[in-house]
Amino acid sequence: MDGYLKNIVERLAVPGLRNASGSRWVETMETIQQMIQSTGFDPEIQEWTGEDGMVYRNFIVRIAGARSENIILGAHYDTFEETPGADDNASAIAVLLGFLNDHKGEEFPYNLEVIFYACEEPPFFGTNGMGSFVHAASCDPEKIRFMVCLEMVGYFSDREGSQDFPLGFLRWVYGNTGDFLMGVGNWKSMHRAGPLLQALQAHRPKFYRKFWIPFAFSGMDWSDHRSYWSRGIPAIMITDTAMFRNANYHGADDTAASLNYGHMANLTADLKTALLGLK
Predict the structure, then answer these.
(1) What does pLDDT average to over the chain?
(2) Which residues in 62-84 are b (16+ Cβ under 10 Å) and which e?
(3) pLDDT given at position 268
């Protein structure tokens, strides 16, 4: 799996390729669709036209489960301006593709929607032009069990002092070494999404941490899960904590060579195990 994930990131982490306001955007969407199809799934396309006249597309893979409620597993595929965006967010796209590629027909307890979102980065962030906002607005909240957002899941460090936090006291809780993934959710999401994080922690206790917040603050809602929170849908983000660890964030050095593909492979496998085991 390590080599598969690395190959995906190397193909996607090309400066300028995935800028949703750039000249190669149509190529980007075609590439993402082809990558999904290579896993054996033909995605549903959710398409809209922006104020600039550009066409944007979310790609949705539906996997039928035993229950009628849906769990959404999603990540954005665009980048900040012309940056290569290996960690942000080719890492998460690679994990989604690895998850689909490893699907062998198992029946999950709930229906799954695996979604590749356009338009998370500025100038779309925080507007109704976000791909996740478009999708969330089309959902019936009563049919969604919870949403899982993968946001930058590939950068790790064993160096002491490599991990920072939006609130200083958190380093006393979680330590100051960036060798873990953090699950972040609001209190409303705890009941439904909490069992997934608990399952991940049970499988790999030192690798997964969780942080439940009473309200959104200082980066805790800086990704696609915010679109579902705004609709009252339980949602969590799984992240390597982005700028609080990765100095390459939104920069030219966010390249494929900086990522840890073994840890990404663990996440890919662990998500499948945890989702299959939900009650």
Answers:
(1) 95
(2) ebebeeeebbbbbbbbbbbeebb
(3) 98
Report d(CA 63, CA 170) in Å as an integer: 37
The CA-based angle 230-117-247, given to 5 degrees, is: 90
Taking CA atoms, 26 is separated from 21, 135, 184, in Å, by 10, 20, 33
Rounded CA-CA distance 96/142 in Å is 25
Q: Is 170 exposed, middle or buried (0-12, 13-18, 19+ CB in 10 A)?
A: middle
Distance CA 173, CA 163 (A): 12
Domains of the chain, first to last: 2-276 (3.40.630.10)
The predicted-structure confidence for 112-162, as pLDDT tens digits, reads as follows: 999 999 999 999 998 999 999 999 999 999 999 999 999 999 999 999 999
- Rounded Cα distance between 268 and 33, Å, is 20
Which parts of the chain fold into alpha helices (H)?
2-12, 25-37, 91-101, 131-138, 170-174, 190-203, 225-229, 261-276
Per-residue pLDDT tens digits for 232-253: 999 999 999 999 999 999 999 9
pTM listed for this prediction:
0.96
Strand ranges for the chain from DSSP E: 44-49, 55-63, 67-76, 110-117, 144-151, 181-186, 208-213, 235-239
Both tokens of 98, joined, read 């690895």
Nearest to 94 by CA among 148, 153, 42, 147: 153
